[in-house]
Write a structure and sequence with these properties.
single chain, alpha+beta, Diaminopimelate Epimerase, Chain A, domain 1
Amino acid sequence: MKLTLYQIDAFADKLFCGNPAAVMPLKKWIDEQLMQQLAMENNLAETAFFVPSKTKGMDFDIRWFTPALEINLCGHATLASAYVVFELLKTKKKKIVFNSKSGSLIVYKKKGQLHMDFPSWPPERIAEYPDELLPSLGNPEITGVYQNREYIVELLNEEAVKNCNPDFSLMKKVNRMVIITAPGKQVDFVSRFFAPTAGIDEDPVTGSAHSQLIPFWSEKLGKKKMTAKQLSKRGGDIYCEQNGERVMMGGQCVFLHERTSGNCVALLKSN
């Protein structure tokens, strides 16, 4: 069996920016262990796999794997997957509907950008959290700690987010992924995303984090439409919109390369 892998820089308008994702279109699902091993071999934040869907109203079923585990939602690899379908597999459709563990995810092609319709996951303020959380961030001055899928720590300003130097060994004891965020200078809000428990110390640009950050900042700022920047070394700009129980995220993608892997299924079975 030959598998084709596309590497795409998501939330980027030029190469080597945004968040790189591996995308592997499949005709049918392969073994879960093989998908995990391929993701580990790719060693990117996420590898996305998708197959034609048998569910009514859905185009593809999609799954995402970090080098260490499968996750329930990934934004940048979904954006990259949609780019592959639109630009490399040459679909004539104007929208793609992915069926996932987090429900339906819709991607539209609009004026040179891809816009993703994702679930809105508002975080709630919490008073109790692991003792290691703030020390793992260098004990910054905070505005509050919130939680949905991740811990969200609100810092005072953009500089505090930019200058944070996490202790990832200590953060592993938190046993949950961590987002830090603050108001932005030239955008509405900024953030960084840390996931050492998933095999990723810092993720360059994280769509799933914005399923939580968009409702958080929409309520805080009293705005429906916003712009955001993730302050990783590669960086990424995200158009954001709160729309009831859904959020919209927009960005561009750049195609890096394609490669074909042969006989990997046979090799796995022989081990």
